[in-house]
Amino acid sequence: AQSVTQPDIHITVSEGASLELRCNYSYGATPYLFWYVQSPGQGLQLLLKYFSGDTLVQGIKGFEAEFKRSQSSFNLRKPSVHWSDAAEYFCAVGAPGGFKTIFGAGTRLFVKA
Amino acid sequence: EAGVTQSPTHLIKTRGQQATLRCSPISGHTSVYWYQQALGLGLQFLLWYDEGEERNRGNFPPRFSGRQFPNYSSELNVNALELEDSALYLCASSLEVRFFSNQPQHFGDGTRLSIL
Predict the structure, then answer these.
(1) Alpha-carbon distance A24 to A92, whole Å?
(2) Which one of B97, B102, B107 has the shortest CB-CB distance to A43?
(3) Which residue among A38, A82, A86, B97 is least packed, with the fewest CB closer than 10 Å?
(4) pLDDT class of A111 with cuts at 50, 70, 90
(5) Extended strands (E) in B1-116
(6) Rounded Cα gap, residues A78 and A64, in angstroms
(7) What is the pLDDT of residues A19-67, one digit of tens each?
(8) What is the mean pLDDT of chain B?
(9) Interface test with B, best of A91, A101, A102, A107 (most B CBs within 10 A)
(10) What pLDDT is attached to residue A7?
C-alpha cells in the first residue's frame, strides 16, 4: 500500500527567500505524485502532478517539484517566496492503475517580511 | 469551466441533530470524494462515489453516509452529530478513475460544520 510523509509540520521563510518542502512516499513502483495548496478557508488547489517522463515538473504559481526515485522523494520548490504563498501544502500519492490517492499531513508555510 | 461547488458554506448544528452537505462536481467528472479536515488532523478520507455507487469508505462510523445522484452530484449525511464532528468537509471530483486511474482531484471550498 502506498503512503506519504511530510516531515515538516510547519516552515517559516522570509519573503524573497527560496523554499523547499519535503515529501517522501512509500510505494513499490513509480507512483503518481501531486502537490496541492490550501489557502485559509478554501479548498485544495492542484499545483502540479507527476505521472511519468521528465522528473522535474513545473506547476502553477512558479512552483516546481523533482521526483527522485532513489530517495523516494517528491520535494516542492520555489526560488523566491511571496507573502501570498503562505498556506498549507499537501503532498499526495496515487498508485497507477489503482483508485486511491493518499494525502500527507500537510506542511504549513509561514512567510515573514 | 465551473469548479466543484459545495453548499452550504457554513452549517451550525447541535449535538444529536442530522446534517446534510451537498456537492456538485465539475462537468464531466463522475467520481466524487468526501474528506473531513478537523483542526490538526489533516485530510481524512471519508467516502468515494463513482457512477452512483459507493466505491470506498474511510475509517468512519456508519452515521456518516452519502449518495451520488444520476447527475453525479452528491450528498454527505451525518446523523447523531457529535462535538468532534466539527470540521471542514471537503468534496473533490475527478474523471472516472476506472478509465483514467488516479486523475487529480479538484476540490471545492468546503462546508464548515460547527456542532454546538
Answers:
(1) 10
(2) B107
(3) A82
(4) very high
(5) 5-7, 10-13, 19-24, 31-37, 43-50, 53-57, 64-68, 74-78, 87-94, 106-107, 111-115
(6) 6
(7) 999 999 988 777 889 999 999 888 899 999 998 888 999 999 999 999 9
(8) 91
(9) A101
(10) 96
Bridge partners of residue B51, in order along the sequence: none
C-alpha cell at A5: 510523509
Determine whether the interchain pair B43/A45 forms a contact, defined as Cβ–Cβ distance below 8 Å: no
Read off the DSSP letter of residue A57: E
Task: State CA A102 to chain mean position distance.
Answer: 13
What are phi and psi for residue B83, nearest 5 degrees? -55, -35
Contact between residue B66 and residue B49 where contact means Cβ atoms under 8 Å apart = yes
B95 compared with A72, residue with greater pLDDT? A72
Between chain A and chain B, the number of residue pairs with CB atoms below 8 A apart is 51
For residue B77 the three cell numbers come to: 449525511
B40-84 pLDDT, tens digit per residue, is: 778 888 999 988 999 888 889 999 999 999 999 999 999 999 999
